[in-house]
Specification:
With about 600 residues, the protein is an alpha+beta fold. About 30% of the residues lie in helices and about 20% in strands. The chain is built from 13 helices and 22 strands. The chain has a seven-stranded antiparallel sheet with strand order 2-1-5-4-3-6-7, sandwiched between helices. Strand 4 and strand 5 form a beta hairpin. The longest helix is centred in the first third of the chain and has 29 residues. The radius of gyration is 24 Å and the shape is globular. About 55% of the residues are buried.
């Protein structure tokens, strides 16, 4: 094939995915999808292997490939033109039951030529708690509807019995129906655009480009791996639930042109729903690998080939049925993300050529806050706080991380507007801002996270309820790199019985009422209560006492760090808000000398 035609088809494949993503967002009615971008759209070959990975949460690229293969096995001889399949069983391929995969075979002249696949986190899945996250579940049977694959549309006709049965099992059928319709519309657009491409250039030509892209991705990634140093790097993550601590331990070994991610030593599967399955762990390690090692390589099956994962069965990163997994996406999966990001960053930093591609860990501790309450109109509303998608960038080896800078596993993540959330749900924000001192200290500082406080507003019941889950507040998780420090951990507090109106409560220190620290479970929020939440910053890179004093001064001026942090973490001497250069250098010399005396490298 001539190179111009090849390039045109390649770019058209990208455009097919991009247009399908736009369709998904426009049809969906939930903030978590169309503003938070908790979604994924990709194309797959006829055998289910990844052809063109799209944007959104990258964990799902390989998991949706396994979902396609599961449907091929399950419905052998029954996959027809116009069919659409639904799958959300975590022990088959999905990450947790709330992530519903919609899979559509694409036929040309009667032959199966490709698949389109997409997902969203549906508004409700019928779990024991509204919204799908079930912190009190002790098995998957309490985590809502779960299917290893069913045919939702047959030959272009909706199976009304299946549709009605599913919607009969969820709390907000109107919103869930809209979630499903957005997935169907997304696949329709992807199929139509891919077929238009095939009609113009021919099925053989499009297939040739697909096969060539896969071969090229494998070749390019293996070449890059050969340029990186051989060795082993370790990373460790902790999960704290109800005073019980679990760990995710990773040893990443690079040899020649291959990478092995070995999670041997990780904790046994938990009684709590932070576990994840092996497919979820596989997707979790690729989520940072794709942007860190394949930023200029097409994300497809070729980029998967050089990678091997070892995850002991029965561990928290490869749990066995019926262990609960509803909190997996903000539990073990994200811990796998963080561990992989940390290990890859260490490997890149050890390479002179690729050192500038290294990064500390980004937003490492998602929180899941699903709210449920009656609105003024009397309907049950289920909504989520999307601030967790705002994230915080990890520092690079040449610059600071981006404040509230998103997250590594989702290149398009963001948080919804305050007005969007307040318009859909009976709450009011007291404040939402950057969180001072949350970025990891370093020669280059990690990006800061944020903090919010909300109160009920306009609910006929006088308050709301919410489900809180995640990895707790006990451990910092946004690891630093090369002497950099981790970002500050998350924190969650309910202030019970505060002042009427709370008009002047625009900072955390001003919140009135009795503080009640929380981290896991289902909680009521009464009319006189406030809920405060902060999320972690990114990790820092390099020794904090080597940060230029001018940068420290700027951080003080912009309220990015406090004077106390400037002195304690960065060794700066500050008088009346101004950094004293001479006194700071003396203090830094003393810090280095004390380290050497204690046997710590300066």
């Amino acid at each position: 094939m001539d190179p111009i035609t090849y390039s045109i088809i390649r770019h058209r494949l990208f455009r097919v995915v991009e247009e399908a993503v736009i369709t998904l967002k426009h049809v969906s009615g939930t903030a978590i999808t169309n503003e938070g971008h908790d979604l994924m759209v990709s194309l797959y070959r006829a055998d289910g292997s990844l052809l063109m990975g799209g944007v959104g949460f990258l964990h799902h690229l390989t998991s949706a490939a396994e979902a396609c293969k599961a449907i091929i096995r399950r419905f052998e001889g029954q996959i027809e033109e116009g069919d659409v399949f639904m799958l959300n069983d975590p022990y088959t391929a999905a990450l947790h039951t709330s992530d519903v995969y919609m899979l559509a075979p694409i036929h040309h002249e009667g032959k199966l030529v490709a698949w389109s696949a997409c997902f969203v986190h549906v508004s409700d899945i019928g779990a024991m708690n509204p919204g799908g996250f079930a912190p009190d579940a002790r098995d998957i049977f309490s985590e809502g509807f779960s299917s290893p694959g069913l045919k939702l549309i047959s030959r272009g006709e909706l199976r009304q019995d299946v549709w009605d049965t599913f919607l009969n099992m969820v709390r907000s059928p109107e919103m869930v129906a809209l979630d499903l319709r957005s997935l169907i519309a997304c696949n329709n657009v992807a199929g139509q655009r891919l077929l238009a491409l095939i009609e113009k250039y021919g099925a053989d030509a499009v297939d040739h480009v697909g096969r060539t892209l896969i071969e090229q991705s494998e070749k390019l990634l293996r070449e890059r791996l050969r340029e990186l140093p051989d060795g082993s790097w370790q990373s460790r993550q902790y999960i704290d639930v109800m005073g019980s601590t679990a760990k995710v331990l990773l040893t990443m070994t690079k040899k020649d042109d291959s990478l092995i991610f070995d999670f041997t030593g990780s904790s046994p599967q938990s009684i709590y729903s932070v576990n994840c399955t092996k497919w979820a762990s596989l997707g979790g390690l690729f989520a940072p690998l794709f942007p860190l090692l394949c930023y200029d390589i097409t994300w497809n099956q070729g980029a998967v080939a050089p990678i091997t994962m070892i995850a002991p069965e029965g561990s928290i990163v490869n749990c066995t049925r019926p262990a609960p997994v509803s909190v997996a996406t903000v539990g073990a999966i994200q811990s796998v993300n963080n561990a992989a990001c940390s290990a890859i960053g260490k490997m890149l930093a050890a390479s002179e050529k690729y050192a500038e591609e290294a990064t500390a860990v980004w937003h490492a501790n998602h929180f899941a806050v699903f709210m449920f309450a009656r609105t003024r109109e009397g309907r049950l509303a289920i909504d989520t706080l999307t601030e967790t998608f705002a994230g915080a960038g990890g520092a690079k080896t040449y610059g600071d991380g981006v404040d509230i800078g998103g997250e590594m596993p989702n290149p398009i993540s963001r948080m919804a507007n305050v007005e969007t959330v307040e318009g859909a749900f009976p709450i009011r924000y007291l404040f939402r801002r950057r969180m001072r001192d949350s970025g990891g200290a370093g020669r280059y500082r990690g990006g800061v996270g944020g903090e919010i406080a909300i109160v009920p507003h306009g609910s006929p019941d006088g308050g709301i309820n919410f489900v809180l889950s995640g990895k707790g507040s006990k451990f910092p998780m946004s690891d630093g790199l090369a002497g950099g420090m981790p970002g500050a951990p998350n924190d969650y507090v309910i202030y019970r019985g505060g002042a009427d109106g709370r008009q002047n409560e625009t900072t955390a220190d001003a919140l009135s009422g009795k503080p009640e620290p929380i981290s896991w479970g289902v909680f009521p929020l009464g009319q006189s209560d406030a809920f405060y939440l902060r999320w972690n910053g990114g990790g820092g890179v390099g020794d904090p006492v080597n940060r230029p004093l001018g940068a420290v001064q700027k951080d003080i001026d912009t309220r990015t760090i406090s004077v106390e942090a400037a002195a304690t973490l960065y060794g700066a001497a500050v008088n009346n808000g101004q950094v004293d250069e001479e006194a700071s250098n003396r203090r830094r010399d003393q810090i280095r000398a004390s380290r050497l005396a204690a046997g710590v490298s300066a």
